[in-house]
Design a protein that fits this description.
The structure holds 2 protein chains of 2 kinds. Chain A is mostly helical. Helix content of chain A is about 80%, strand content about 0%. Chain A has helices spanning about 1-20, 20-25, 35-45, 50-65, 70-85, 95-120, 125-170. The longest helix of chain A is centred in the last third of the chain and has 45 residues, at about 125-170. Chain A is globular and about 60 Å long. The relative contact order of chain A is 0.14. Chain B is an alpha+beta fold. Chain B has 2 domains: about 40-115, no CATH class; about 120-280, Thrombin, subunit H. Helix content of chain B is about 40%, strand content about 25%. Chain B contains 5 helices and 12 strands. In chain B, a hairpin with a 2-residue loop joins β3 and β4 (about 160-165). Chain B is globular, with a radius of gyration of 25 Å. Classes of the chains: A mainly alpha, B alpha+beta. At the A-B interface, α1, α2, α4, α5 and α6 of A face α1, α2, β1, β2 and α4 of B.
């Protein structure tokens, strides 16, 4: 229960920051993708189920406020969260390489999918342009933000896991 | 003691269920053209106050930082401007006379009818699209303030976009520079119609919006001509400035022309917008 509330607050805070503060801090009108960091991090820290649920709800938020179709972003984020869950066995909190690689890959896949469904289908073929001007800048910015945000998420998760362990310990 | 008596629902099946839900949602919003519904209301009440809060705090901080920095500059500028005021006052008197004359002439020409003044409501931009692909944003006025879907949105004197979705206390706006957007425009000088369509590529490269299908057989349209929303559009009210033509060229078919428009609005820094509370009436709606 406590976990649900805390994680919910994390998602909401990230969504709010992304739609307000980071849009104001955007370089060349490119903002980082905080939602993908949260979805992906909880995916490999906590497993498939949690990644999937967090992805679903963060995507739904995007859909309601900015999407043209309800369910599109929810679907993408959900699968990204789920896929990240497969790497839980390889995950060690001290190692930042794997999280970086996974978040990088998630962001690439997310942007490819958005391009594929929303741009290529409408006949916008200059993929290289979009790669150079949208996808790569967003990747770089996202990775930069990951360095800070990842440790905050990690800390929150470890605190939560500690309290959970303590409370189950009481009953044994 | 048993750790958990509750049966765990395997994540594989959950994924399938949620996928199905998403699929249904996408299908519904495609076919019925409805987005959110009750979700809009709930989300509106939860998120809009928070976004509004962050924005006002941000604006306050920027304001304070700016005012400290600018104080010195302003002092110096003040003296300079005082001198200018005197100079301009004399100039103004002459212009006032001319204005009076112009008003009279306008009345004669009944130009007022051509550019009606629409009833508007001011709103603040509180959130911008979280992704980088589309240009949509949310404002802090919704159905409670009389905003409805398909109302036009302006900033300053130029057209910004159109309301695509409303909640009780917020509205979603699609910009005219959004990649999926098409607007029917008209060159003011010659009354020729054209189609203005948003394009992410052109916007990032040159900060312009392309237009096409301009029929101008007499070669009268030139660079710098203003383009406004046209009378044939079924969603945009007539006569709102879109921008000024920056380039123009003949299409390969030699019948139409295309080119680019420099928008009248600075889409990077929109903070306040005006929503026109009047929708274009088409014959369909009147029935």
């Amino acid at each position: 229960m406590k976990r649900t509330i805390v994680v919910g607050i994390m998602v909401i805070v990230c969504f709010l920051l992304q739609s307000t503060l980071f849009q104001a801090l955007a370089f060349a009108s490119i903002a980082p993708n905080l939602m993908i960091i949260v979805t992906s991090s909880f995916g490999f820290m906590r497993g498939k189920k949690e990644g999937m649920l967090i992805g679903f709800f963060s995507g739904l938020l995007m859909d309601i406020f900015f999407g043209s179709v309800i369910g599109f972003y929810a679907l993408i984020y959900m699968y990204i969260g789920y896929a990240n869950g497969f790497f839980r066995k390889l995950f060690f909190p001290e190692d930042i390489k794997l999280p970086m690689i996974l978040i990088f890959a998630s962001d690439v896949i997310y942007n490819f999918l958005v391009y594929f469904f929303q741009f290529l289908f409408r006949g916008q073929f200059s993929f290289l342009f979009y790669l150079k001007n949208i996808i790569i800048p967003e990747l770089v910015y996202t990775i930069l933000v990951t360095i800070f945000l990842y440790f905050i998420l990690l800390m929150v998760n470890q605190k939560l896991e500690m309290t959970e362990k303590r409370s189950t310990g009481k009953f044994v | 003691m048993k750790r958990r008596s509750k049966i765990q629902f395997p994540s594989k099946y959950m994924l399938m269920c949620l996928t199905a839900i998403c699929g249904i949602l996408i299908y519904i919003s495609f076919t019925m053209n409805l987005s959110g519904g009750p979700l809009n209301t709930v989300a509106g009440y939860v998120f809009i106050p928070m976004q509004r809060g962050i924005n006002s705090v941000g604006a306050w901080i920027f304001d304070k930082a700016d005012s400290l920095k600018n104080l010195k500059d302003v002092m110096a500028e003040n003296q300079e401007l005082q001198a200018k005021v005197d100079e301009l006052t004399t100039e103004l008197n002459t212009i006032k006379l001319e204005q009076y004359e112009l008003d009279n002439l306008r009345e004669l020409l009944e130009l007022d009818k051509k550019y009606p003044s629409y009833e508007k409501v001011a709103a603040n931009v509180i959130g911008k699209d979280a992704g980088n692909w589309f240009s949509t944003f949310t404002i802090d006025k919704g159905s409670k303030d009389g905003v409805e879907v398909d109302m036009n949105v302006m900033a300053g004197s130029g057209l910004v976009g159109i309301v695509t979705d409303v909640g009780p206390n917020y509205a979603k706006i699609k910009c005219i520079i959004n990649d999926t957007n098409k607007t029917s425009g008209m060159v003011l000088t010659t009354s020729d119609n054209c189609v203005v369509h948003g394009d992410l590529q052109e916007m990032t490269e040159n900060q312009n919006i392309p237009f096409s299908d301009l029929k101008d057989s007499d070669d009268e349209v030139s660079v710098g001509d203003p383009v406004v929303t046209s009378y044939i559009s079924d969603k945009y009210v007539q006569g709102i400035l879109i921008g000024y033509i920056s380039t123009i060229k003949n299409d390969p078919n030699n019948l139409t022309k295309s080119g680019t428009i420099t928008p009248a609005v600075d889409f990077e820094h929109i903070e306040e917008v005006l929503v026109i509370l009047e929708k274009k009436k088409t014959s369909e709606q009147e029935e």
